[in-house]
Amino acid sequence: MIPYYYGSIIIGPSGVGKSTLCKGLSQMMQQIQRKSIIINMDPANEDLYEDYLCINILELITVEDVMKEFKLGPNAALLYCFQFLLDNISWLFDKLIKYKDYYLIFDFPGQIELYLANDSIYNLIQLLTNKNNQTLQISLVAVQLFDCLNCYQVNTFISASLVSVTVSANLSLPYLAVLNKLDLIKQYGEMPLSLQYYLEGENLKYMLEVTDQCDEDGQKFKEKYGQLTYQIAQLIDSKEVVSFEPLFVENKKLIMRLILKMDKANGYYFLENLPPIYKSIQDEVGEEIDFLPTELVMELETELFESN
Ligand SMILES: Nc1nc2c(ncn2[C@@H]2O[C@H](COP(=O)(O)OP(=O)(O)O)[C@@H](O)[C@H]2O)c(=O)[nH]1
Ligand SMILES: [Mg+2]
Prior knowledge:
The chain has 14 helices and 7 strands. By secondary structure, the protein is α/β, with parallel strands linked by helices.
């Protein structure tokens, strides 16, 4: 029988916390007696993942070497690396095959162009999830991280929502958007609207209606960019709800919630014969995963705002 794997690809801009989350997921998996392995897919990522089981694309190719050898800039070198990986995908499959029954945590590169203006990542995902692959089969969910700093300005939050809609449409995978580093609210101060509003993302237009955001020159955002932004917000609102999962790496409960959401999205959650520890977590919180419980948001608000 062809071995079947479950996994997540973690995406988002550089510095948003992808590698940290990969490690956090791996630790949590260990706590619930699930085996997992991190696969670094960013040929420019110098993180060593010390103490973590890891397959590293740097063993195959690095952006640095390609830049030197072909005298390319970093972006062109990255594209070269991806094409090389696509041409040599058996390198990755040969490594993965040794980790039967492991959960696969892919740490992906941050450059947004790779997801929007180029088909490298799309092609890679097609190869990874190819149903005709006779070596192994993988069921994936994409998890895109956004910095909670995006919530403080109308334009940045609407951009983040737009990126989320576009990337999710481009990847053709089950998809989750995450608002990460929420612990930083303690430093940034309270957000203009409630945390629940940003997480549920049900009515982007509302944000524009109530904002008093001004430019550096004192001009009101609403007057200067209101029309265009309103149209964009309306378009997103009409498409689908862009909701975000709350997260910060220190909060184990939120990491567990994310794991269950990922499992529901890629199908692991519905397997028979799951380990007893996992079954008991399912019984305890499984139903809450499909929505954002008000108590959870209130608990978070207390934790994040009251220590200000
Ligand atoms: N405050 C805070 N910092 C975080 C969190 N997650 C990651 N970081 C920090 O953000 C920086 C970038 O994280 P990293 O995982 O390397 O980001 P990547 O470039 O997306 O892989 C590091 O200094 C991390 O310690 C978080 O949840 N909260
Ligand atoms: Mg990283």
